[in-house]
Structure formats: C-alpha cells, structure tokens
Amino acid sequence: MRTNHLKYILGLLLTVSVMTGCDQTFDEVNTNKVDPTSLAPSLILNKAIISTTYLDGFSTLGMLCYNFGIVQQIITPYGSSLSGGNYNQLNNGNASQVWINSYRNVVKQIVAVVDQTKSDPLQSNTYHCARIWKAYTFMILTDTYGDIPYFEAGQGYITEVISPKYDAQQAIYKDILKELDEASSALTTTQAAVTTDILYGGNVAKWKKLGYSMMLRAAMRLTKVDPATAKTYVTKAVTGGVLQSNDDNSVIRHTAIFNNYIANHLAAREKTNFYLAAPFVNFLKENNDPRLASIAVRYVGAKGGPEQVAARASTDPKVQIGMPMGYNDVTITGVLQQNGVASIWDFSQVNLNTVLKLDAPEFHITYSQVQLLLAEAAVRGWVSGAAADYYSKGIRAHLEQMALYDASAAIKEDAIQTYLKANPLDPAKALEQINTQYWVAAFLDGNEAFANFRRSDFPALKKNPYPGSEIKGDFIRRMPYPDSEIVVNSGNMNEAITRQGANDMDTRVWWDKK
Question: Core-most of 170, 173, 177, 359, by most CB within 10 Å?
Fold first, then answer.
C-alpha cells in the first residue's frame, strides 16, 4: 500500500510539473497568428461598400424585376419568381431585397465602423468616409421604402437595440444632409492615406468630391417638398466641390473572378428572360443616340434560347427592337408580328459583351449625373452658370463613360459632337430634357433611376398597360415593408404605416409629392 501511495504522489507531482511547464508558454503556443479576432475599420468599410452592390441572386432579381421594369428600361414577360414591375404586382420576395441586403450586409457594417472610429483622431478620415457611405446607404433605403429605422438602426451589437423605431423620411433626409455636410468638410489631407480604401485608394480629395456630390443628389430630392433647403445644400455642395470628371466616379471594379453580379446573373440562369424595354430602345433609336450600339444586342431571327448565338448577334442600332410593356409570355406572342420579331427571344437585350460583361464596372454616382443635376439647379436659379453648358457636359460625360465598360463600347468623338449638336437644351422643355437624359445616365443603377423618375416625373413614360396590375395609380411609388418586419418589429412598423400611409406600392414617400 505504501509503495502504491508513493507512486501516486510522484505521478501527481510529475503531472503538475508538466502542466506548469505548459502554462509558461501556453499563450505563445496556442495563439493563432493567422486568424484575427478583429478587423481594421477601414476593411469593414470596404466590406460595406462592396455589399451595397447586388451580391446574390435574390438582390439582383429584386433590382431586375422592380426598378428596371418600373422605369421601363429592362423588362421580362415572365411571371412567378420574376414578377414585379413588369406586371405592377407585389412579389414579396423581390420587393424586400433592398431592405434585406442593406440592413443585414451594409448597415450593420457601416454603423460598426462609425462607432469604432468616432473617438479615434488617428482614424478620423475613415470615420468621415464611413459617414458618407452611411448616408448613401440610407438614401437608397428610405427612397425605396419611405419611413425606415435610421437613428437606431444597426445598434444591436452596440446598444442592444433589436427593435429599432422607424423614423420619418423628412427627419432622415435632414440628418443625411447634415452628415454629408459635416463629413465632407472634415476630411483632411494631413493624415496618411488609407491605401486599402477600395473606392479611391485613400485619395481624400476624391472622397470629398464624393461627399459633396452625394449632398447635391440628396438636396435635389427635395425639389418638390422643400425647395429652400434644397437650394441651401445645393449651394454648399457646389462650394465644397463636386465630381469634376469621369475619373472621380464612384465605382466598383470587377474582374474575371469578382464578377459584376447583374452580368453574372443575366449570363447564366436568366440569359433568355430579360430584354430591353421598348420605351428605352425607342428613345435612343429615335434620337440617333450612339449609346444604343454600346448597350444593345439583338439575336436577329432567334426562335429560342439556343438560337441566341454569336452568328445572329447585331449591335446595329437600326435593327434593335425593344420589348413592349404590358404583356406576359403568353399574350406577347400575339404581337410578335407587328413588332417585327420572330419570337420573344428576338427582342433586343443588354449586351453581355460590353456594359454587362462579367468584369463590367458598377457605378454609384457619376460625373454625368452630377452635371445633369447642376443643369436642373441652374434652371431653378440655384447655381451660377448656364444650364445648357451643364446639360451638354452631362451628356458628353455619359457618352464617354461607355468606354469605361469596354473598348468596343467606346463612342468616337465625331459621333459625340454630332449627338450634342442635334440635341441642344430647349429652355421651354429643359426639365424634361435634363431628367430624361438623367434616366439614360442612370442606366443599370436601378435605385437611382427609380428615385429620380419619381422625384422629377420624367421621362414622360406611359402607364404599363398590363391588365393584371395591382396598383391604383399609373406607377409603383415605393416598395412595401418586408413580411419579416411583421414578426420582428411590428409595433414600430405599424406606427410608421399610420404616419406614412398604407403599406402598399401606391403610397408615396415624403419627397414624392404630387
């Protein structure tokens, strides 16, 4: 017994000795040096910026099925999971995608960056850049849905607010303008550039231009409801300095690995389902717009998807035929002959080798759009300079922007000059001309095209005549709140509905005044 007891004590002492020895270097041995426990705020900001684009199939479908269809640029005759603006019907799955993507993948990230950097003087530029992107993100959200969670949004991990109240759009826009004003002016060149910045590589001067250009866009949203505030902030934006060329555009660049997701989506499962809408094609065609050759392709005579082959592909503007509004895949077969096509598959589509090739860039705000907004501001007497000059620069900028998609989409200088000469600004039709050109300049940016169409009431589109429409008015005015909000935040949502109006597609957001 004594021998066994001694063995036990010796064994215990040896174990303690070994454990003590392990403890002495435990932290060193067990530290995973390649798996960080936190990310730099600048990298989280990049994640938020990238996530603002359409990174999954559902988000892309939401854009394709609603925004592009409402403004009559891209349309599908098919229903079921593809229904939306093409039928003026509610498709909960597609209508909720801006909400889901923005709150889950962008707001959470961007609010975290703002919180992590607000008290750190060494990260002040990251802080102010995050405020600018936060303003952009919430503009998209509130423009789409109206009253939304704003001041308490994204606070779940920070202040444990998991049922944020909905704020009135008027209050949201007031704060967005304040944030853009403060953040843009506070950016400084005295700090080292954040070279990991995915937009501008840490170029603070370009971020300032972005902030003031976003301020211009936000201010112009208020032309119907608060022109005095709109004028004030338009003036501030111009004084601060907006985008000065296409080199200043806010853009996400894609590669053969990191694809433009709309391009990816249309190149794969939806290749034969979406077509350029007749109102858009006809406008470009009737005005001899050289952009049509850069944007459109038609597989002439195709009678099915397998016949959409390179041998049939034509980018000749003369042969482009847009799909008429108001039909489904059955009823449209009755108007094929009068439209001069052999089948559904014979209508013009977006060219997947130019503006929607897999590595095509995706723009958030452009020099072209800025110049056209300044043209309208000049018409209203809010900025100095001739509206016609801004108008001409805005059109030229978008014509030149075609080259940024692909060399084959570039428009020659003589064609640009011919188009500008043939389309001068007519003071009697100035607002219509400016905002119709904005419609073209916002092509493939569905959020902005939808917002400015409601804000300006141009272009003068005709109501989609689909007989199964579920709206009372001529056009969809907003997206309803997602069904998920009924489950997780119904009290605050219902308060917003009481204040704003029915949770349907006819209710106008605050700035969309009749």
Answer: 173
Distance CA 331, CA 158 (A): 53
| Cβ atoms of residues 425 and 396 within 8 Å | no
Q: How confident is the model at residue 35 (pLDDT cuts 50, 70, 90)?
A: low
Last residue of a domain, one of 350, 369, 393: 350
Domain boundary, last residue among 328, 350, 372: 350
At 431, give phi and psi (nearest 5°): -65, -40
Residue 60 confidence (pLDDT)? 81
For residues 236 and 375, membership in a common domain is answered with yes
Least confident of 3-7, 226-230, 242-246, 339-343: 3-7
Whether 188 and 300 share a structural domain: no
Q: Are residues 61 and 191 in the same domain?
A: yes
Question: What is the secondary structure of 258-314 as a DSSP string?
Answer: S--HHHHHHHTTTTTT-EEBHHHHHHHHHTT-THHHHHEEEETT--SGGG--GGGEE
200 and 106 part of one domain: yes
Summarize pLDDT for 350-377 with one digit per residue, the tens.
999 999 999 999 999 999 999 999 999 9
User: Residue 55: what pLDDT?
Assistant: 60
Give the predicted TM-score (pTM) of the model: 0.92
Pair 427, 322 in one domain? no
Tokens 């900001």 map to which residue? 45
Q: Which residue range(s) make up the domain with 308? A: 272-350
Q: Could you tell me the pLDDT band of residue 9, with boundaries at 50, 70 and 90?
A: very low
Could you tell me where the beta strands, DSSP code E, fall in 99-202? Answer: 148-149, 166-167
Give 127-181 pLDDT, tens digit per residue: 999 999 999 999 999 999 999 999 999 998 899 999 999 999 999 999 999 999 9
Distance CA 203, CA 123 (A): 14
- Whether 125 and 226 map to the same domain: the answer is yes
Write the single-letter amino acid at 145: Y
Which CATH number covers residue 188? 1.25.40.390
- 85 and 215 inside one domain: yes
Q: Give the torsion through C-alpha atoms of 124, 129, 135, 137, to 10 deg.
A: -130
> Residue 72 — left, alpha, or beta (φ > 0 → left; ψ -120 to 50 → alpha)?
left
Specify the 3-state DSSP secondary structure of 474: coil
The SS3 assignment for 88 reads: coil
Q: Residue 494: its pLDDT value, please?
A: 98
**Per-residue pLDDT at 456 exceeds 50:** yes
Domain count for the chain: 2
